[in-house]
Design brief:
By secondary structure, the chain is an alpha+beta fold. The chain has one domain. It contains 1 helix and 2 strands.
Length: 64
């Protein structure tokens, strides 16, 4: 199922919504269930972080 990354943030008195292209998660092979969950979460969050201003990217600020 395709996923659609969406970033939503306030800019002054405006609410800004940014969309990226949808994508399919293609996981690396031979990962344990916990490692697969971790990989998927970080992959999705990196894509969402790209849609946010740098100051709002949290731990993903330096990863991009």
């Amino acid at each position: 199922m395709p996923l659609l990354p969406v970033g939503v943030f306030a800019d002054g008195d405006r609410l800004v919504t940014r969309f990226a292209e949808s994508f399919l998660l293609t996981a690396p092979h031979a990962l344990s269930k916990p490692a697969l969950d971790d990989w998927a979460a970080h992959d999705v969050m990196r894509r969402i972080a790209q849609l946010l201003p740098r100051a709002l990217r949290g731990v993903y600020r330096e990863a991009l």
